[in-house]
Amino acid sequence: MAKDTAAIIVAGGKGLRFGGRIRKQYLLLNGKPIVWWSLRAFEKSPSISSIILVVPADDVVRLQSKAKAWKFRKLMAIVPGGQTRADSVRQGLLALPQECRYVAVHDAVRPLIEPTTVEKVIASTRQSGAALAACPCKDTVKVSNGNGYIHSTPLRETIWLAQTPQVFERKILERAHRKGNTAGVTDDAMLVERLGVRVKLVESSPENMKVTVPMDFIFARHILQERS
Questions:
Q1: Could you tell me the CATH superfamily of domain 5-227?
Q2: CA–CA gap between residue 84 and residue 64 (Å, rounded)
Q3: Which of 99, 217, 207, 120 has its CA nearest to residue 166?
């Protein structure tokens, strides 16, 4: 299997929504920091050749020291993030090895990602140029008119919940970031879509959730316990 893909793990946010002084990406989840679980999945993914971890600038030295004990062979660099998520991804792109052909971007606070899902998205990208993990929506979705009333109800089967990893041909993702059209952008797929590039949906598990609020942390801990 070709090891032609580098991963950018984005942990550059302030991560203080839990109300504590510890950024959520470093909270211990079953004995390991949340970010450790994301790194571990990409370490175990056969197609991944190298990993770049993006963290807040004031965490770089501390994480470099801590990462020595983690002994992830593929973790090539820990770099400072920027003001926005897009800025942080660009910092990761600058640190990529020249030989990588594809780039996987993953939210550090999605610790339940599994190597099999990573490989599925990479395989799809090799065929289509751009793909992301996503989960079909189970609920009926209502679009607001902005004033507290329903504007429309889209067909449920057309609604997917975007996750990460999102994997792209390197040249496509770099071109999307060079254009710099980041207004309102919440993920890299949106940037790539603005180039007119079609992005393939790859079905993923609802377990690949983003740890955003304390209840997510409780669910993640339970799922990891069930897996073990």
A1: Spore Coat Polysaccharide Biosynthesis Protein SpsA; Chain A (3.90.550.10)
A2: 22
A3: 120
| pTM of the predicted protein model | 0.95
How is the chain split into domains, by residue range? 5-227
Q: Quick one: tokens of 67?
A: 């990462």
- Tens of pLDDT along the chain (228 residues) come to 678 999 999 997 765 556 567 789 999 999 999 999 999 999 999 999 999 999 999 999 999 999 999 999 999 999 999 999 999 999 999 999 999 999 999 999 999 999 999 999 999 999 999 999 999 999 999 999 999 999 999 999 999 999 999 999 999 999 999 987 788 899 999 999 999 999 999 999 999 999 999 999 999 999 999 998
Contacts of 197 (CB under 8 A, 6+ apart): 129, 130, 172, 176
